[in-house]
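Morning run. Coffee first, then this:
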Amino acid sequence: MAQTEGYATWAEIDLGAIRANVRVLARGEAVVMAVVKANGYGHGAVAVARVALEAGARWLGVARWDEALELRRAGLPAPILILGDVPQAILPEAVAAEVSLTVSSAEGVRAAQRAGRQAGRDARLHLKIDTGMHRLGVRPEEAVSLAERVETEPGARLEGVFSHLACADEADPGPSLKQQAAFDDVLQALSARGLRPAYVHLANSAATLRWPGMHYDLVRPGLAVYGLQPSSSLPLGRDLTPALAWKARLSQVKRVAAGQGIGYGHTYRTRDEELIGTVTVGYGDGFRRWPMNQVLLGGRRCPVVGRVSMDQITIRLDPGQAAEPGDEVVLIGRQGEERLSAEALGLTWGTINYEVTCGIGPRVPRLHLE
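And here it is:
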């Protein structure tokens, strides 16, 4: 309790769960890239990256240069791949930091080669193939010529080739298998010209768990590192454990007479005399204004009543429920026999667990616990 006494709301990150999850994911032959973008899916990128590397991951994946820079400044020397686009002005600094870059166009390759010559070392490039996601990526029929451009001009070398699956967490495997077939065609063409690089990768968390045939040289789990479920179609199983719990404090408890409005707009009115608690968390922390919210207090589920405010919510307690200011309230996690998961909260909010944990705001301290 002493560690959290000064906090109104906080997130507890179980590093032991992260470590155990990565060990499970590293059981196969493929190298593991732990994806720690978006502040480690809200869990704290640097702390998660350290533990993941200790547990057997050999690569780290991020989306942007500033995320890679944070890891380098924290003293992490492991290979890092920026999975997204990097502004050309940043490329020389990224190359100098030995951060690997994603490329998907001739212009991007030329810019990386210039940056490599400027930095005095080859830019490490991973060629992204658009096999059906239709976001970032070169069309399959243009991949070989782009790979040849990397290898024939000074300043860069082809370190990897990859693609990203659009539907790996869906029940129907058809779209993913179609993407894999397109990817394999590119690999065959690259191999025929002696251009197959050291790292071929396709599998996200869902594909890592479902299809060993998609592992290739390297896998890129994100959600699974944190013990989050890729989708309702793909349960994690008992080997992977959620690492994040989100908590807040009860700041006041009062009895409110029947017929009284609670919170902004009086959108909720008490039906009888009700026991109402105020909790120190709100939409300013990432707890959304949404109907049907619940929290745990004293091991019981308590509905959120009235509108969620920026800094506070109000909850309805059972009439005889013992509670007092300072009591711990759970938004995500376990209390007694009850548990509220990030997946359940995502269903309440009409979204996914990714968005729930990534949306926990920066003013919520992350406490990394063993």
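The chain is about 30% helix and 25% strand. Good start to the day.
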